[in-house]
Amino acid sequence: MPKIKINGRELEVAEGITILEAALSNGIYIPHFCYHPHLPISGNCRMCLVDVKPGPPKLSISCATTVAEGMEIETENEKVRAARAAVMEFILKNHPLDCPICDQAGECVLHEYYMKYDLKPSRLFSPEDKVKKQKRRRLGKHVVLDSERCILCTRCIRFVRNVSGDESLAMVKRSDKMEITTFPGKTVDNPYSLCLTDACPVGAWTSADFRFKQRVWFLQPSASICPHCSRGCNIWIDHRREEAFRIRPRVNEQVNKAWACDEGRLNYHLINDDRLTLPLINSGGGQKEISWKDALKTAGAMIAEAGENLSVIVSASLSLEEGKALLSLQESLGAKVMLNTGEPGWEDNILRQSDRNANTKGLTDLGIAESLDNGLDDSAVLVVFETLGSAPLPEGIPAPAIVISPSVTPAVKAAKVALPAASYAETAGTVVNFMGLSQSYSSALKPKGQALSHAEIIAKLSAAAQKAGE
């Protein structure tokens, strides 16, 4: 392992890594724009220049220079600082002065670097001297490009070519009129297009869904796990005042690196919309609101009366903790428990899995493995446990007696009793992904309305059924 010095500090680093990687892994920050740990090296922004001895008389690009034994590297001397300031001035020469209305405000690397490494006024005589480029271009279903804000770091181009593989973007023109655009007849509509908003270090690529909805410094990020396929991508739920505003990928090298699919990101709407917030009862004249006490009394009586004809259908996205609670319900009531995995979805070689459930493996490992394909007895009394975005009941399944769900679904509308459940964003739990990796998540929000966690509802149903059977 090579021994080097960075700013006089002796380090022993891994063979074959770059100076930038060596510095960052040892808590020494070197500013950079075009470098991204999950994309190929470009080396075009020149922000990461450092002084290397022994080495060339000119400064070296730290993101593209491999460490070597005996290197002495300076990241903060006068020569480096002067070069850094020059790079900043060059990048900012034609940058628009629209920070107050930019969606990236609060997360903009360019703004942070200006405050730290530049803080000088422009030498242009007037803002009108700046080169004008295209603004607010809808280049895909989910993404908008502002070419004036673009610093030409090429992260977006490298992402579509090397990760999503759709070859939709290219650079056109030359000099300071150069900009990024789509090839003729193409749009950025790959299933990972919103990753461009994360990869972009400035406010050039923005989400059409999130634009102008919330200032990011008002948002609180909470770590969670995406429940919408068996990959279990690590995510941040950004929320304010008990409302989710967006989902972003959380870095996990083993599971999803730094990416997340558009579908998983945009499913944050399910956290907010069409939620079941109160118990409902269908007494023949349509559904009406009912108290928890009366709902549990009615549901408990139906469960007790069903006896050995009780069948429970559960979403394969329930957590391990909720699965264990269901097993206790099965033991106490003798219920037949079946897993609803739904129809397979689309799959690719990037992240998406055809299993649209977060915890199929975890629940089957617990012993909840019987499939709905085995059929139901005509006399079965159904209790259905749904999760946010879980698979609908297959055709031919009789109307359920009791449905526990976070959303107003067809099963809820058909149920005799519907009980509001908290979503994954409002509870804590553990899921096991298709690789067998166990991952835990915590609650980000309070349950909506009168909703309770699935585990609490299971306990209350069990107690109500036992009381009704006495």
Describe the structure.
It is elongated, with a radius of gyration of 27 Å. The protein has helices at residues 19-25, 78-92, 109-118, 155-164, 195-199, 262-266, 269-272, 292-306, 320-333, 360-366, 410-414, 454-469, and strands at 3-6, 9-12, 49-53, 60-61, 72-74, 137-138, 143-145, 169-172, 179-182, 205-207, 220-225, 234-240, 243-249, 280-282, 287-289, 310-315, 336-340, 381-385, 402-405, 417-420, 429-432, 438-441. The chain is of the alpha+beta class and 470 residues long. A 7-stranded mixed sheet has the order 15-14-20-19-18-16-17. A 5-stranded mixed sheet has the order 2-1-5-3-4, covered by helices on one side. A 3-stranded antiparallel sheet has the order 6-7-10. Helix 2 crosses helix 3, helix 8 packs across helix 12 (454-469) and helix 9 runs parallel beside helix 12. It folds into 3 domains: 3-90, Ubiquitin-like (UB roll) (Roll); 98-272, Alpha-Beta Plaits (2-Layer Sandwich), CATH 3.30.70.20; 280-469, 3-Layer(aba) Sandwich (Rossmann fold).
User: How many strand segments?
Assistant: 22
CATH fold name of the largest domain: Rossmann fold
Average pLDDT number: 93
Which regions have little confidence, pLDDT < 50, spanning 5+ residues?
none
Q: How many helices in DSSP terms?
A: 12
Helix content: 10-25%
Mind telling me the CATH class of the largest domain?
Alpha Beta
Distance from N terminus to C terminus (CA atoms, Å) equals 73 Å
Number of domains: 3
Which architecture name of the largest domain does CATH use? 3-Layer(aba) Sandwich
Strand content: 15-25%
